[in-house]
Design brief:
485 residues, two-stranded antiparallel sheet
């Protein structure tokens, strides 16, 4: 076998440093962008700043380069399945009033037990610190906290978590170490956090109620017994069978059942809802749109107008030392790249947002989700003449202030559902109809998922019962029997 040289041609796309910078800035919402620019100004003496300005789209410079369209980006995102809602099937049989009746309102009597500027993980971590027996246990506890989902559940397997932390940090811990840390996390507030199943979540809350009463809580004790031994029977509402097996009187058993139904299947729901509302109230919009004048304005906030320092320009011309000249040139080039990237970001955002408004014109005129049309990021990419990954970055954590409130840009994307006439409507419109049907139903005989499905079909919306159930759960409405009053 002989070795020989061979020349081959291979086409490969690579992003230039300027394209990478534009991508990073495009992905950043206004406040993050302000921080990045502030840091760059502090670190690069070749940058000078002036007062910020807000520009309407009509005032934007028209030079829109398409260099960004052909980028080969592995992080291309799709909005397919964006409306999917991961639910716990067993939760249907419990009082979901903690979901606030399907709305985003926080109960008036909700008592915030955390600092307003804390994230949920920070809130849990601050409780963990004084409970941990040593530094390792605190590290493992924080690792578990960071692995919780939005509802406070630990969906990852303990064995996989153990392997993951050993691979990344070479700690040599055992599953027993990880389990001990999990037990510690499950002692934190709110009760039920760190649970791996619905049964465990409810049981943790019932046990906490017993502890708070020095173990002298007969109702909570019966509740724990029910959850331990007859959880499946309880979800099937086989109350007579359970009561007979537990040998408890009617009053005590009924009180235990009511107690379980009032437990929270979403441990951190109150926290995350409150934080969401707080964030929503305080969110800084990246765009302003006036439907009457049809004017879109980009919010530049405290972003300064940047330019290259004239002194550095002079230094580049006067210094003869090669090393100094190279340093000055690098700073000037970096400054120019940032200035150009900010301009490119503004132009791309203008094109994307203008395309969204054009595609969802009726919504921006009425402010009702019923007017939202099916829209994918690829649709906007075609309209804005850019790549779909560019649209994904532009929509990332961005908001627009309209005549009807503040909306996330991702709110305008949704899957399409065909009607009897062949017309496609937005899944958000279907959700809006389901919400209206449930809110106006007879509470003494609420609509089942089958009944909701029939009503939608009668109006020409061919949608499966399973999809109706998924949308109902996404709206945080409980099943019909739990809505009955």
């Amino acid at each position: 076998m002989s070795l020989k040289e061979q020349t081959t041609l291979k086409q490969q796309q690579k992003l230039s440093p300027s394209q990478i910078l534009v991508a990073n800035l495009l992905e950043s919402p206004l406040l993050e962008l302000e921080d990045k620019i502030k840091t760059e100004v502090e670190e690069n003496p070749a940058l000078e700043e002036f007062l910020p300005q807000n520009n309407t789209v009509e005032e934007e410079n028209e030079r829109t380069e398409d260099f960004y369209k052909d980028e080969d980006d592995g992080n291309e995102q799709s909005n397919e399945g964006a409306n999917d809602f991961e639910s716990y099937d067993e939760m249907e049989d419990f009082d979901t009033s903690f979901s606030f009746g399907g709305s985003a309102d926080i109960p008036n009597d909700y008592n915030q037990a955390y600092a307003e500027d804390q994230s949920f993980t920070e809130y849990l971590s601050s409780q963990l610190a004084p409970l941990a027996q040593n530094r390792l246990q605190r590290q493992l506890g924080d690792f578990i906290i960071g692995s919780l989902d939005d509802d406070g559940y630990l969906k990852a397997d303990i064995a996989k978590l153990t392997d993951s932390i050993n691979i990344h940090y070479s700690l040599g811990i055992t599953e027993a170490d990880m389990y001990d840390a999990l037990l510690l996390v499950q002692k934190l507030e709110p009760a039920g956090v760190g649970a791996r199943t619905l049964r465990e979540c409810l049981r943790l809350q019932a046990e906490r109620a017993m502890t708070e009463n020095d173990g002298d809580n007969e109702i909570a004790q019966v509740a724990v017994d029910v959850l331990d031994e007859f959880f499946d029977d309880f979800t099937a509402k086989k109350y007579s069978y359970i009561q007979k097996r537990l040998r408890v009187d009617d009053n005590l058993f009924n009180e235990a059942v009511d107690f379980i139904k009032k437990l929270n299947p979403y441990p951190c729901n109150a926290f995350t809802e409150a934080k969401y509302m707080k964030a929503h109230d305080a969110v800084t919009p990246d765009f302003y749109y006036d439907s009457e004048s049809d004017v879109l304005t980009i919010n530049n906030g405290n972003i300064p107008k940047l330019s290259v320092s004239k002194e550095y320009d002079k230094m580049l011309k006067t210094y003869n030392d090669r090393e100094t000249s190279a340093f000055v040139k690098q700073k000037i080039d970096s400054a120019n790249q940032l200035i150009e990237a900010i301009e490119q970001r503004s132009q791309i955002l203008s094109r994307v947002m203008t395309s969204i408004i054009k595609a969802q014109k009726e919504f921006f005129m009425h402010g009702d989700d019923a007017y939202l049309k099916p829209l994918t990021m690829q649709n906007i990419a075609d309209l804005a003449n850019c790549d779909v990954s560019t649209v994904s970055r532009a929509a990332n954590k961005k908001y627009i202030q309209t005549d009807f409130g503040i909306f996330s840009l991702r709110h305008f994307f949704s899957e399409g559902i065909a009607t009897d006439t062949g017309e496609e409507i937005s899944s958000k419109e279907i959700k809006s109809i389901i919400r209206s049907l449930i809110e106006n139903e007879d509470k003494s005989s609420p609509l089942t998922d089958d009944a909701l499905c029939e009503k939608l079909n009668e109006n020409g919306y061919r949608i499966a019962r399973r999809t109706v159930a998924k949308y109902r759960e996404a709206l945080r409405f409980p099943t019909a029997r739990l809505r009955k009053s």
